[in-house]
Write a structure and sequence with these properties.
265 residues; alpha+beta; GMP Synthetase, Chain A, domain 3; 4 domains; 5-stranded mixed barrel; 26% helix; elongated
Length: 265
C-alpha cells in the first residue's frame, strides 16, 4: 500500500491526500507537491502515515520534496504578489459592478495560477472579469465561490470563548451541524447564543454531542410525566451531565429528582 499523508495546500485551500513515496515527512513539515497541472506548496497536517485504504481517485498527487529555504522564499514572494492582485481584483469588481465580495487570493506555488476566493448571494457571471484579470496577470485565473463558514476560516478571528476560531486554527474540515445538536444538549435555542461569527451553528456544538446523546438515553424528557417520592409530576427541566430532573408535582412544588450515574459500559 502506498504511503499516504494529509497536506493542507497553500494558504486557504483544503486538506487533501498525497502519496509521500520515499520522501520522509513529519507533522508540520512544509512540502512541495506535484499536482495535475504543476507544483504546489503545502503543510503536512496528519500526525502519521494514513493507514486506512484511500481510493486512488481521492489522492491528489505525490510529495516531491521537503520545502527548501529557496522554496519558502518563493512562497513569501507569492504572498506579496497576492496582496497586490487582491487590490487589482477588488478594483475591477467595483468597476464592473459584479455582485460579489472578494475574500482573499493566493498564487499557486509555481506562479502559473491565481485563485480568488469570493462570496456572493447566488450564482455570478464572472466570465468577463476572468478575461480582464487574465490579460492583466497573464496567468490562469480561478474564481472560487465559498460559503460563510469558509470565509470565517480564511479571514480568521476570535470567538466569544476568547480562543482563535476552531475552523482557522486546527480543524481540517467542517463538521455536519444541525439545530438538533443544541436541543439534545439542552442549550437555549437563541441564535445569538448558538451561532458563531459566520452566522452558522458553532462548530463546538459537535464536540460533545455524542456524549450528551449517550448520557441522555435513560433520562426523561421535558414534558414527560414521571412518578416521584412526592407523587406524579411533569418534567420541566433536565440537567444531563449532573443527571437530575426538575419535576413540577403540583401546588407550586418543584422536586429535584436525581438518577443513577450513567454506565459507560
Amino acid at each position: 500500500m502506498s504511503k499516504i499523508i494529509e497536506v493542507k495546500i497553500g494558504e486557504f485551500r483544503p486538506v487533501v491526500f498525497f502519496e509521500c513515496g520515499e520522501v520522509s515527512v513529519r507533522y508540520g513539515d512544509y512540502v512541495i507537491v506535484e499536482v495535475d497541472r504543476g507544483m504546489e506548496y503545502g503543510q503536512m497536517v496528519s500526525e502519521d502515515l494514513i493507514k486506512a485504504e484511500i481510493k486512488p481517485e481521492n489522492i491528489e498527487g505525490k510529495i516531491l520534496r521537503i520545502a527548501t529555504v529557496q522554496d519558502l522564499l518563493q512562497v513569501e514572494d507569492n504572498r506579496k504578489k497576492a496582496k497586490e492582485a487582491l487590490k487589482t481584483c477588488t478594483a475591477k469588481i467595483e468597476e464592473s459592478k459584479v455582485e460579489m465580495q472578494i475574500t482573499q487570493c493566493e498564487y499557486s506555488f509555481d506562479g502559473s495560477k491565481i485563485i480568488f476566493f469570493f462570496t456572493a448571494e447566488g450564482r455570478v457571471d464572472f466570465r468577463e472579469l476572468v478575461k480582464d484579470l487574465a490579460k492583466i496577470f497573464r496567468v490562469r485565473i480561478e474564481l472560487k465561490q465559498i460559503g460563510v463558514r469558509d470565509k470565517a476560516r480564511i479571514v480568521g478571528g476570535y470567538g466569544i470563548c476568547g480562543r482563535e476560531f476552531c475552523c482557522s486554527s486546527y480543524m481540517k474540515d467542517f463538521h455536519p451541524l444541525t439545530i438538533k445538536m443544541s436541543k439534545d444538549q439542552n442549550l437555549p435555542l437563541n441564535p445569538s447564543r448558538i451561532s458563531g461569527v459566520c452566522g452558522r451553528i458553532k462548530c463546538c456544538m459537535a464536540y460533545e454531542f455524542s456524549v450528551y446523546r449517550e448520557y441522555a438515553k435513560d433520562l426523561p424528557r421535558v414534558g414527560e410525566k414521571i412518578t416521584t417520592p412526592q407523587g406524579k409530576g411533569r418534567v420541566i427541566d433536565i440537567n444531563i451531565l449532573k443527571r437530575y430532573a426538575l419535576v413540577d408535582v403540583g401546588e407550586g412544588q418543584v422536586s429535584k429528582i436525581f438518577f443513577n450515574k450513567h454506565n459507560d459500559n
